[in-house]
Amino acid sequence: MGIAQAGAALEELCRRVATGPERTAITAQGEVLAVLISPEELADLEDDLAIAQNRLNEVLGSPEPVLTLDELSAELAAADNDDEEAQGR
């Protein structure tokens, strides 16, 4: 979707993305400038990245602390709870 068209329909795009698994790419001159995704999908991607980074640290023997999956899951859950409390949920 072009940037001008996206600007005119931003509220509707945000509602569609927030209520389903839809992603919307916003383009200018055929180049993707941004992608709209739901907050839940962003949180899932961030969780997946944290897990992958933790596993990479473990494989590489990084001096960074390596958490067990249970410890990492607990930390991610605590962070999600903190985010929800900050947003007044």
Automatic annotation (TrEMBL):
Pfam family, one: PhdYeFM_antitox
Residues annotated as transmembrane: none
Coiled coil among keywords: yes
Keywords, in A-Z order: Coiled coil
Organism superkingdom: Bacteria
Matches recorded under InterPro entries: Antitoxin_Phd/YefM, YefM-like_sf
Chain coiled-coil ranges: 42-89
Family: Belongs to the phD/YefM antitoxin family.
Function noted in UniProt: Antitoxin component of a type II toxin-antitoxin (TA) system.
Name the UniProt record assigns to this protein: Antitoxin
